[in-house]
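quick one, 326 residues, struct below
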Amino acid sequence: MKKGILCLLAFVILLVFHVTRIGQDMIIVYSSMELFRGEELQKQLEQRFPDSKIMVTYVPTAKAAAKISVEKEKCDADIVVGVETSYLEKVKDSFANIEGRSKLDYLDGLTPLDNHNAYVTWERFGGAFIINKSVLEKHGLSMPTSYDDLLKPEYKSLIAMPDPKSSGTGYFFYKNMVNTRGEEGALAYFDALQQNIKQFTESGSGPVKLLIQGEIAIGLGMTFQAVNEINKQSPFEIVYPKEGSPYTLTGTALMKGREHDKKIVEIYDFIINEFLLFDKEHYSPEVILKDQKIAIENYPENISYANMEGISDIKEKERLLDLWKY
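---
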């Protein structure tokens, strides 16, 4: 009996040791991208690095930043992908210096140097007015072309916008309005707009879902989602106001201390120099690179982007969200 217990105890110790070793050998990538994009990254990493144990795990952007903020470089993540830059700015001291690692030709203002060499710009999420033409025609309404058009009484209960407190998409519309009309002007505008709003949706994709269902005619949403629906034959049209397309940015970073691990650095280099190109061409095509290729049909070209100064300032974001009352 005693001998059996000792054998069992030895087995448990060996098992714990084995699991610990697997955990130590595993390279962990936090991905805040949609699941299908994370799955594609996992597949390509396994193909490129067949001798490495790599796990791409979905972690929402705010949760990823919160874990890093508490655990710092002891966080189990080795690499983070697609985390909103306002959150990355808050935890950038936990990232390795990646100067010289990116080989891509970024547009001005989006280079790693502009990000303090703490992370590379991963993507731009751009927004627009997304119009369901069938619903407009049903109500006999004209196409809106400006923010002020959205205040017309005939659009009452036919507009949806994401809630800035729960959606980065909602926040970039809000922040652009602050940048172009000033804080008081922006708050006054949304006081007026809310009278026409059917719903402030929890997620950035909420307005597009309502457009698909025909419950609204106008959604303040993301361009790439609108294009996806247009390519499925939805009766949508994308309209950019004269202020341009508002947007937010995400970034990709290497955790501090991992720059000394050759394999992790190789994986990071692959992600930021090769997979990034694939992802921009096939999944998230808003332009961040010079001569960027886009394979998605019907994607708008030569988009004029809005004034998004301060979009990565987390303190400014928290202050403005405190003023949001809807």
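Residues 129 and 248 are 16 Å apart (CA to CA).
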